[in-house]
Specification:
single chain; about 675 residues; eight-stranded mixed β-barrel; TIM Barrel; about 60% helix; Alpha-Beta Plaits; disordered C terminus; elongated; 16 strands; 25 helices
């Protein structure tokens, strides 16, 4: 390979993965950017010097218009490069600029040669000499100012020297011919010098990279040797993100304080668990780096507000553990919990933006409510879960009342495992009334369970227990089958609404089972409405949406229950196969006295109208509420004003006697 070919092949603009080439590109770009303004200024002066003595002797197109265009381009590029001196460019952008400079310079050289040829044709001897001087000086300017962008220099030399030299040698002017040959010789010498400088620069950069790499390697080896033992200890006991003690360290300390080898086994202490409400939303909106930053700031805030007698650990995710050993703090546990919750409500300022979350805390006291480390953790976790369900954003201390609830839930779980659910589960129906026709539009099927041992168990309790046990799909299929069998006796214009759980939507087997039940039933699928909550959808939107689309394919309709109490995201409403929205009863309680509540309900009603969705209002109990809702344009109403949940036979009677509904029939 020749020297020329060697340097041209070495300039592989697109090879940005070659570290040496990338470093060379950066150096070329830095030199070119810094020198470009002066280069363009030199070219402008050179061009003005050429034309000034002759501007009135030639066509103004050649002496004013075309040079004006050149000078304007030079000024524009000069200003642009001056502004780029302090600007940071990526490796891809640098490669693109260098690549473009080659062909932009070539285009300029061609245009310059055409213009110079037109001037040369004027046959003014002194002008011809000046043109030759101008061309060679232009080439020299480019060569020295762009000395590290060799392809540009090579291409410019070829475009300017070869045509001009051939053209002059074909003439009979011996002075110009000698000048042309001398210029070629000088250009070759300068190019050779530039090759040498270029090779020196490339070697220096290569050596610098090698030295840097060797230095970094030595530093890394030294650091690895120094930190090896420390890392092992840190990985074993410290959370790498927050620098707090980790789960392993937390349980080791707890076992030390409460175990058989504890120095003070009767010492009072409190174990607490805290997690952030809304942390998943921060991760989803801002990304995991923002979530990590929030956890770091949370750990710092906890350490700032808690005393020296309180140990803080990160147990995983957004969950933190507390061990309180100071007797004074143990007696003041509720105030400590309030202090934590109040502190977490304060705005967190992250790089991605300001965010606000809340905290829920669960506490348990040792040894009064638990006497082992494992039981302490389990009961603190129960207190945390209880707070999330009943007093979200507050602290709850585990008590004997919670212990009773745990025993009751344990009994319920035992009965759910052992009992004949097919025999004991039943369905009641609450009417949904069309206020325009004063007729029953449909019924919502409501689960009921009467156990010989436990008696009547509240639906939210046994359904929650079934979800935790993973058997909710079994209950759902039994209840749907019974609801459909009962609904077959209804008139053809009455539909049946049935609630689905988070776990029903998450289980493909349960969804297929529901489809099978619908297909085998004599009740038409187009009269079935499956209700799901916003929380259920957000648990796993993709899976939930797929399940709802499968049910939709069977002809069933889909309703979004409790709308307005969860995420209420219009983007999700748009993407789901919905037919109706149900306004949660929490908005109806104060609708007669709270203007803001009325505005919210009106907004939801208008949303349904705009999206062609049916709107059902639940929880209506008074004539005043009904009148306000009807004035808003609400057509479908559900609540105690019309009827409590009814047995199957009573529901059938309600349908048959609902042709002239003018007042409530069920009472409160």
């Amino acid at each position: 390979m020749s020297a020329w070919s060697k340097y041209i092949s070495h300039f592989k603009i697109k090879d940005i993965h070659n570290e040496s080439q990338v470093a060379l590109n950066r150096e070329r770009h830095k030199v070119m950017t810094r020198q470009a303004p002066l280069m363009y200024a030199t070219l402008i002066i050179n061009m003005i010097t050429l034309l000034y003595p002759h501007w009135d002797k030639l066509s103004h197109v050649l002496t004013l218009l075309i040079p004006g265009i050149f000078i304007t381009v030079f000024i524009h590029h000069g200003i642009m490069e001056y502004n780029n001196i302090k600007r940071h460019f990526s490796d891809e952008e640098i490669a693109g600029k260098l690549y473009s400079s080659v062909w932009e310079s070539a285009a300029f050289a061609v245009a310059l040669m055409v213009w110079a040829y037109q001037l040369f044709s004027s046959e003014i001897p002194i002008l011809q000499v000046q043109i030759m001087f101008f061309l060679y000086m232009t080439l020299v300017v480019f060569a020295f100012f762009l000395m590290y962008v060799l392809p540009t220099v090579i291409l410019l030399s070829a475009i300017i020297l070869i045509p001009s030299t051939i053209y002059i040698l074909m003439g009979d002017n011996i002075v110009l011919s000698v000048l042309a040959l001398d210029s070629v010789f000088i250009a070759l010498a300068v190019t050779s010098l530039l090759f040498s400088q270029y090779e020196t620069l490339a070697n220096l950069i290569k050596q610098k990279l090698e030295l840097t790499s060797q230095k970094q390697s030595l530093v890394r080896q030294a650091d690895e040797l120094e930190k090896m033992n420390g890392q092992n200890l840190q990985l074993a006991n410290i959370d790498t993100l927050t620098a707090l003690p980790n789960r392993r360290s937390f349980f080791a300390q707890l076992e030390q304080l409460t175990g058989k080898n504890s120095k003070k086994p009767t010492q009072k202490l409190v174990v607490g668990l805290m997690d952030l409400d809304g942390f998943k939303r921060i991760n989803d909106v801002f990304g995991h780096p923002a979530g990590d930053a929030l956890l770091v700031k949370t750990s710092q805030r906890l350490q700032d507000i808690l005393g020296v007698g309180i140990s803080v650990a990160r147990l995983g995710g957004d969950e933190f553990g507390l061990i309180i050993t100071n007797p004074q703090d143990v007696d003041d546990i509720k105030n400590i919990g309030k202090k934590i919750c109040d502190s977490m409500r304060q705005v967190f300022h992250l790089k991605e933006g300001s965010v606000q979350v809340a905290a829920t805390v669960g506490f348990v006291e040792y040894p009064e409510m638990a006497d082992t480390s494992q039981l302490l953790f389990e009961r603190a976790d129960y207190a945390l879960c209880y707070s999330k369900q009943h007093t979200k954003g507050q602290a709850v201390v585990f008590s004997s009342e919670h212990e009773t609830i745990i025993r009751n839930i344990s009994n319920i779980e035992h009965q759910l495992r052992e009992t004949d659910l097919e025999q004991e589960l039943s369905v009641m129906f609450q009417p949904i009334v069309d206020t325009q026709t004063n007729r029953t539009a449909g019924f919502e099927a409501l689960a009921r369970w009467h156990n010989p041992t436990l008696g009547h168990v509240r639906p939210d309790i046994f359904i929650g227990a079934a979800e935790q046990m993973g058997i909710i799909g079994k209950l759902t299929t039994i209840l749907l089958r019974k609801a459909l069998n009962a609904a077959c006796a209804w008139p053809d214009d009455v539909y049946m609404s049935f609630n689905l759980s988070i776990y029903d939507l998450s289980s493909p087997q349960t969804v297929l089972g529901l489809i099978s039940i619908v297909e085998k039933s004599d009740f038409p699928s187009h009269r079935i409405v499956f209700e799901i909550t916003e929380t259920a959808v957000m648990h796993d939107f993709k899976q939930a949406n797929e399940a709802l689309n499968l049910l939709k394919l069977q002809g069933a309709q889909i309703a979004l229950d409790d709308f307005g109490t969860g995420y209420s995201s219009l983007s999700y409403v748009q993407r789901m196969p919905l037919d109706r929205l149900k306004i949660d009863r929490s908005f109806i309680t104060d609708i007669a006295t709270d203007k803001n509540t009325r505005n919210i309900v009106q907004t939801i009603v208008d949303l349904c109208n705009n999206l062609n969705l049916d709107c059902i209002v639940e929880g209506v109990e008074t004539q005043e509420q009904l009148s306000i809702l009807k004035a808003m344009g609400c057509r479908y109403i559900q609540g105690y004003y019309f009827s409590k949940p009814l047995l199957h036979s009573d529901a059938l009677n309600f349908v048959n006697h609902s042709t002239n509904i003018t007042k409530k029939s069920g009472g409160l």
